[in-house]
Amino acid sequence: MSLQRSLYVIINNFAGGGRTRQTWLQIASKLYQHNIDYTAHFTQAPKHATNLAYDLALKYSTRPAEQAPILLVLGGDGTLHEALNGLQQVPKNLVPLAYIPCGSGNDFARGVGITTDPQKALAQILNAKQPLMLDIGRCHDLQRQTTSYFSNNIGIGFDANVVHITNRSVTKKYLNKYHAGSLAYLASLVKAFFTQKAFPLTVTADDGQPQQFDRGFVVTTTNHPYFGGGVPILASASVYSHHLDLVVMERVNALYFILLFAFMFRQWHTKMPPVHHFHIKKLRIQTTTPEFGQADGEDLGHRTFDLEFSVAQQAFWFVPNK
Ligand SMILES: Nc1ncnc2c1ncn2[C@@H]1O[C@H](COP(=O)(O)OP(=O)(O)OP(=O)(O)O)[C@@H](O)[C@H]1O
């Protein structure tokens, strides 16, 4: 295993309940053994990874592509999201992105074939010989006139409510420490189900007519199959499809919801009347009541949304598992 390029490593010691620090020590020793040139940068605060990635991409945007280092992220989906957004803000970004998942959800890794074993994930990076272009989602906020990018999904309603509750939960930190972060998710799922009301939304898929839904509940635009820490919201979604997939699930009673949730693991949910699926290149979602929003597990707050989605691309550096 070797690597012709240097690594610029961003480490979020706060991801995965603090497990990243230990993982980084093991990875750093492997890089040393393989004589791979790297610099390590620890995030000092939320959004720091965005600034680091932006500065790196800007610095190398005017040099030959082969001179650009690979940006390796050690953290969870949130840290990857931040780094991706830093790179994408630079129009001529030449920095490819590599990732060793250290979070609690790790949906991106699952969705693109990166193992959650850090040593094996490193081997996937070191075995790569060239960048791999993957789809990412682009989201233009028409209310705020801002553009952001996502590697996993953007959700309005139930899943965002879960993220909001989980991130605020005092038990999350405690449970993460004992590798039981999924218990915190479970508690949030139940609470979010009973607090999330049905809400109206308008969906305009590609250049079609706007469609109105009166009882929106889960409204998730996804780039790959997984959300919420391994739930297959849409198995057919793919980072190679040059499309995004929107799943709108209407509010149903608790028993029906559990059934739909269980059906997801067999992908039967999309055949049920309360579930609507759009496979699109362009999409607009409008809500009129304040709802929770989330992007790659990061809280977007509680507000109305008018979002325009399209597909973008990012160079990654790894050999995917089949
Ligand atoms: N120095 C820091 N202090 C506090 N928070 C930080 C710091 N650096 C990064 N963060 C924040 O840590 C948060 C969690 O990171 P991340 O999402 O990567 O981990 P996770 O929640 O454990 O994983 P996953 O999203 O896969 O469940 C992010 O919102 C990020 O902004």
> Would you identify the CATH architecture of the largest domain?
Sandwich
Could you name the ranges where pLDDT drops below 50 across 5 or more consecutive residues?
none
Kindly report how far apart the N and C termini lie. Answer: 19 Å
Beta strand %:
25-35%
Helix content: 25-40%
Number of strands: 17
Number of DSSP helices?
9
**CATH class type of the largest domain:** Mainly Beta
Structural class: alpha+beta
Number of domains: 2
Small-molecule components bound = adenosine-5'-triphosphate
Largest sheet: 11 strands, antiparallel
Radius of gyration: 19 Å
> H/E order of the elements?
EHEHEHEHHEEEHHHEEEEEHEEEEE
**CATH-assigned fold name of the largest domain:** Tumour Suppressor Smad4
Q: Please tell me the overall pLDDT.
A: 94
